[in-house]
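Hey L., structure's done. Input below.
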Amino acid sequence: RDKDYIVMEVPDRMTGRTEPSIVIVDVNTGRPMIGRQWSDGLHQAVESKEGVPIKQETQTVATVTIQNFFKMYKRLAGMTGTADTEAQEFHDIYALDVVSIPTNKPMIRNDHDDLMFLREKDKWDAIVDEIKHFHDIGRPVLVGTTSVEKSERLSQMLSRKHQVKHEVLNAKQHEREAHAVEDAGQIGAVMIATNMAGRGTDIKLGRPTRSDLLDHWLRRGVCSRKLTVEATDAQVREDVFRKLAQTELKGQGLKKREIEEMPFDQLELAMLRHWAAEFSWMSPKQIETASADDLMNELDSTGRMKLHRVRWFGGVEDLGGLHVIGTERHESRRIDNQLRGRSGRQGDNGSSRFYVSLEDDLMKMFAGETTQKLLSRMGMKEGDAIEHPWLSKNVERAQRKVEERNFQIRKNILEYDEVMEHQRQYFYGLRQRVLEGRDVKGLIFEYIEDAIDDAIEQMLDNEYPAMCAAEFAREKLEVSIPPERLRGKDRDEMDAAIRKIAKEEATHMIDVTIGEYMPLEGSEVSVDFDSAGLIRWAKNRFGVELDAGELREGGAKERRQVQYMLEQAAYEQINKTDLDGLLTFVDRDYGARQLADWVKRKFDFEVEVAEITAARDDEERDPKDPIIAKARELYTKREIDYPVEFMMELTMTIARQNPQQAFTELAKWTSNRFDEGMTEDEIKKTPPPRIAERMRENQQRFVEEDRLTSTIEQAVAITDDDALDVFLKDRCGAGLTERMRYIEDEEERADAVRARVENLMRTELLFFERSVLLDTLDSAWKDHLYEMDKLRDVIGFRAFSQVDPKIQFKREGAQLFNQMLEQVRDKVTDYIFTARISAAAALQGIGAMPGGRARPAGINPARPQAPRQAANRPSAGMIPGSSILGPGLAIGPNQNPATKPDPA
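Output:
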C-alpha cells in the first residue's frame, strides 16, 4: 500500500457516487491510474485485504506492447533530455539513432557525488538535516522519492523534527500537481515528489525582496528581531551568526552572555569550525589551522549548506538556485537524470545530490553483505558517511547492470509478443474490413468455401467409412480399432474383424485387471489378494457371480479358472452385440450421403447425393461445385428478399408511432435504391402485400443486373472528390465522408469508395452480415487472448522437455490462432443462411435509417409482443448474446430487440 497502490475515493461510472477504491500507482510517474485493474483476481484480493467494495473481474479484450504500438507508425521521432542512456535500446528495437543537441545556455549545475551510509535510518536523518539547513536560509529544495510511502515518511520526519513547511506531490495529491510544481522555486519552498518524470511543468526560480527574506529568516529563527531591511550585509552576517551560535555552540560550553560579548571575528571562526567539523571531510587538525576563508571555501565545496555565506541575496538564483535531493538511486539512470534536470534549467544555478544506503533496493542487489563487511572492517560505523567519485561511478555501474537486465526482459517480452503481433495484424485487418464493409459478402463466401472444402476432404476421403465404422465399434464394444484394419472390407468381413479384435482386447484387459486383485507367481510386483474387489468387478463388468468360498488362496489354479470364466462371459457379450449398423458404412456413397446431410444441417438447403457423386467421379469438376452453386443461388434469393422484408418490418415498426415519417422514409429508400421509386401517396393507397411485391420485383432486377458492381466501377473511376460526391448523392442518396477526402493512396481510396457504395446500396444485408461477423469475431478474440495468456504462463515448463519455449510458443500460439479462425468460420456459416436481425433491434443498434439518413426524431423501437415459448428457453436460431433470430421465430423473453448488436 502507498507504493504499488493507494486507497482513494473514486466516483462510480454508473451511479456517480464516490466510494473507496483501489487505484494502481504508475511506477514511472507516481500518478494514479484510475480505472486500471490487475488481472487474475489480484485486484479483487487487494480490495478484500483493504476492505473496499470488490469490483467484478475484467477481461482483456486487446493487448499490445509499447514497442509494437510505436512500430505501427510509419515514421518515429522524439525529443527528451534523457534518451542518451537508452541509445542502444532505441537502436536495437526501433532502428533509431540518438543525437545529443547542445543546450541553449551552458549548464552550470553542480552535481555532487553520492553520499553513502550503512543504514537507511542514518540516510533519512541526513536528508532531513540537509533540507533543514537549506530551508533555513531560504534556498528551495526538491526531494525525489521512489514511492508514496517514502514521501509520506519523509514528510512526517520534516514536520516532527524541524517543523519545515513543505508540499508533498504524489498520487494522492495528483490534482494539485501543476500548482505545487509552479511554486517549487520560491524562497524556502520544499517539495517532496514521487518521481518527477513527465510532470510537464518547469520550476521557475523566484526573486524575493529583502522583506521576504527577513520574514522567512524570522519564521525559521535564523536572525534576531533587531535585524531590519536597512541593515548591511556585514550586519546581517553578524546578526545571523550570533543568533545561531546560541544553539550551535552550546556543545562547546559557551554561555549566551559569552557569545554576545565575544568579538565577531572569533565567533565567526568558531561557527565556521563547528560547521566544518559537521559537514566537511577536514580532519580536526586541519580545521584548527585553517583560516576563515579556507573554511568557507571548504564548506562551499561540500554543497551541504549555505548559511556560512548569509547576506541579502538578490534572488533564488543568487542563493544557488534549486537544490535537488534524491533519496535513493533509481534502477534507471534516465529517471535520476530527469530528477536532476529539474535544477539548472536554461543556464540557472543549481545543485543536486543523491543519498544512498546499503539497505536500498539497488544496493542490496549489487552491493549486499560483502560490501557492508568490507566497509565495517575499514572502520566505518553506523552514522558515518562516505563520499567519493569512484563510489558514484560504482553506483552507476550497478544501474547499468540493472538497465541491461531490464532491457533483456523487455526484449524477451517483445520476442514472445511477435506471435501476438502477427495475429493482431491479421485479426484487426480482418475486423477493419468488416467494420468498413469492404466486400463482406466475399469474406462470407470464403468462409463457406473453406468449410465445404474441409467437409469434402473429410467425408469423401477413402478412409472416412472405415473411420466411422471404427467409431461405431468403439461405441458398441468399447474397443479401439485402427481404421486401416477395416478399410476395403465388406459387411461380414468387417463384422468378423471387429469381433475378433474385441475378443483379443477383452482377453488382454481381463488378464491385466485380474493381476490387480490376485497375486501372480514369479512376478516382481507384490499384490495383496483382494477377493471382495475381484468379485465386485466381475459382477459389474461382466455379470459373472464368483463364489467367495472358491477364492480363498488366490493361487495359479484359481486365477486360471477365474480368467476362463470371465473370458467366456466377455466373448458371449461380444457375440450378442448387434453390429447390423455396419451395413451403412459399406455403401460406396456413404461419404456423399453424410456430406449431403451435413449441408442440410449447416446451411439449411439440400443437395442431391447424385450431384455430389457425379461431381466426385468427374475429373473436370470439383465435388464442391454443386454445393457452392446452391449456396450462391440461395444467397442471391436472400439478397432479393431480405432488404424488402427488412424495410417492410422497419416501416411497420416506425408507423406505430409516426405513420407519416414511416411513409416518407420508405419513399426515399425506394427512390434511392431503384430507378422506379414510389411516392408517399402511392404507399398510402397501396396495400402492404402489393408494396412488398413491387419492391421485390425492383430488388430482383437490381440484383440480377448487378447494379451494385456497375455503380462501384463507375464510382472508382471518378478521381475528383467533388464529382464523386455528386455521383454518390445522385445514385445512393449520400455523398463522401470527410475521411475519404484525405485519402492519398489510390488502392486505399478505391477500397474506401467500394465500401461506401456497399454501405449505401446494400445497407440491410450488410448490417446483418457485419453484426454476425463482429459478434463472432469479438467473442472468439477474447477467448483466444485468454487461452494465449494461459499458454504464456506455462510455456516456460517446456524447457524441461529439452524444447525451446520461444519456438514452442510460436508453434502452439499459431495452432490456437488457427483454431480460433476455424471457430469463427464455423459459427458464421452456421448463422448466415438461417438467422436474421429484427428491424426494431437494427433501428436501435445503428441509430440511423438504411441509406445513411438519421433515425427519425421521437421514434423509439417498438416492443414486440410476448413470445409463445417457455419463459426461460432461448429461441432457436438465436446467436448467443445478440438480437439475431431464426426465420419465423419470435424474440425470446430474455432477448431485448432493442439491444445494440455488438458492435455495429
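The chain is about 55% helix and 5% strand. The mean pLDDT is 83.

-- N.
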